[in-house]
User: Fold these one by one.
Assistant:
Number 1:
Amino acid sequence: MTNSTVFQEAVYTTQFSALQLRPRTLLDLAVNGLARYMAEHLTPFPSFVHHHNTSVVVRTVYLDYTPPDLHFADAPWLEMHVGMVASGTGEWLSLTVDYQAGDRPVARVRLILRVVTVVDPSSLAAQPGRLPESLLARFPADRRQPAKAFLGQARAAPPFPAGPQLFATQRHETTLTRTHCEVADQWSFVEMVEMATVARERLFETLGPSNDVVHQAIGAPVRRLIASYRRPMFVFDRCHTLTQAHRSPDAKHTVFEHTFQTPVGDKPHLHVWEILDAV
């Protein structure tokens, strides 16, 4: 039987901005939760990769904050409750992490994961695959869902219809280094979300501190973040980030949209949407 995994983390200053828990903090803890859940209920992650020749890639991230936002002085500990469901075919997994500070809900993260088969143990090159039957068997009926449910969640769409742009599209180029990557020299989904939040805050420099949208970009907390990973990028790839923003139809939120692509490519590798409160 697969159950939930619960663990705690003592809070420290670098987990927080002046406004809230940082998105990368929550995603780091989500990966920690994934590894703990697998070790407790399936198999440790190194065994998953090197013994079962199986791994997962993140297709979609959904991060939702619960207001009011938690600040550093509010609680000494975070508690994470981790659960996982699988598709009946074993091709998809969904990890849900609920974050609490005492009895207070803080946030929820959902990761939609595509199972892959490792075809080269040295480079960890992989192709679409499915869970080995011995691991899939550990998910009881109430922990399985139809594959089409995962497909719908994996195909993230813009959270609101796009309205008029609030400023001209901003462009920035970065060379991915191993700081941005994981063990296979492929981008880390956590670091790419961090690049999106940096692109938003960079507007303070590119648009100027007197711009009304900049006040929004650096002065409002994130309410929701969605990231849709289309095609991976690798170490030393040149990455172009395109950032734009628009209001939600009810004018209660501002959506900052970040598109990541190569300098010569016309197809996006990653979309990130940050939904912030209007201020």
Note: The longest strand covers residues 104-120.
Number 2:
Amino acid sequence: MEPNNKKEEKKMPSMINISEIIDALSNVEGVIGFLIMNKFGTIKHDALPNWVNLDKIMDFLNSLLTISNEVFQELRQGKVMKLVAENAEANLLISVIGGYIIAIITQKDLQIKLFEDKSKILILKNLNS
């Protein structure tokens, strides 16, 4: 009997269905806007208000995630999965899921969490309902 020299296959992450994310976010009252881009900075969907400077937002997201990942690696805590910023009027949720960066701006009283279920599906949950 020959030894099993088969290399273990690495599982590729399942594709995240962007249209499901767009539909879900578009139907949540209190979402001011959102942006979905891939890890290379290519915009997949932009639903931000028209007064927003898209280039500035993308630069901000890339810088914030780069610096945050460097800090987490320095602390030996892995990669950033989610960042949240709040002010008196709104929330900004930035999630990294399945190779995509999803930035969501919501009204202050709305809390949204994005969940990745076995890298297959994205589920939105309004914590206020």
Note: Residues 54-74 form the longest helix (21 residues).
Number 3:
Amino acid sequence: MPYETFLEEIKQRENPAIIKTTRDYCLEEEAFATTDRDFIEFKSSIWWQLLKILWGFIWIVTLYQFYLSSRNKGMRLLGYAIAGFLFAGVLVKAIREWLDRSTDFTIQIDHLGITVAGNFFYWADISETAILYKRGRKYLLIANNATKPYKTVDLLKFTTYNITAFPLVLSEYIEFFKPRQ
């Protein structure tokens, strides 16, 4: 699949979205990974999810304290109700995130190809890789010559020391291990 056709097809299917090929992403950020290892492996992390849940609880406690400090009984009762609903909502989200095993997998990149959740893609079968930003989520797209036009991999539970930098780090290693054409 030619480079321009790949980007246009994905923009049409995933509209509205921002898409950057891993090559363009690395060139734009002037970031290039090097390693002496034969492969690199990324494991999904529950810590980012727990951090988001903790952030939700902090907001609930702050709101609760605001209403608790009110002298009006009606405001206090409203504060109890809102804090209770928010707490229940965050708790349900936390349980769903914890039990959702579809996003618990590893991504391994080596000189032969990419392995995602046990599915291996040879570099010879991959026509392009890209990062898709859609509705606040990040996805790795693998355009495979053999099957569907592309495979989408949710990067929600993957983090690095810099939470927003994971797509760039992933792109750097994809471009490092991808054979030069």
Note: The helical segments are 3-13, 22-29, 47-68, 73-99, 166-177.
Number 4:
Amino acid sequence: MTKLKILYLRNNNLKDISAINSLTNLTCLYIDGENNNVELKQIEDILSSIEIHVNSQTLSTLVNCTPSKITALNFWNNGTNGAEFPDLSNFTALTYLNLGRCNIPNLDVISNIASLEELNLDGFDRHGKLAKLDFSKLTNLYKLILTYCQLWTEDLKNLTTLKNNESLEINLSTNALIDPEILLELPSKFKINLWNNVNISESFKARLREHFGKNVSF
């Protein structure tokens, strides 16, 4: 079974999954479902290399992992029913976090993961919620994905705290932005993707092109 790539273990009475560590080619693991009661520490050796689907109880055990072993976390499309994300401020090796399509109410805890370089929050309604995230602490961030988040122009105001980052690519495609002036406060070296924001006027697109040049796309 060493070639196994996807493993479904939903709704079982699992308590020990440490044997999964031997599945070195695994890319996706489903251990969600209310009956499973497992510790993510049991698979911390492969946790950084897989997309994982868990229930809210299992998600809370993430804090018990050895911080130095966790460099990436991919919880894309987890149905954790609005469960809070754990505080990972001491996970200083963590550089990649994917919470796309996840209903995470406490986005503020992400601000404390100063080591983050890539953050994906796509595919869930973040309107009025993005303000909880203090981007000023994420000085190492160079890629931010905010696609399909139903964002309004006013939701972008705290993005300006990222202007001192060395480089940054922000994907804002498919939102509800109307001539977001706030983006003009960002350095022209940043790359901005505004594809499918149908309410941005042609005159404002011209201003964005003047500021960002080829670094902006629509």
Note: The chain has one domain: 65-217.
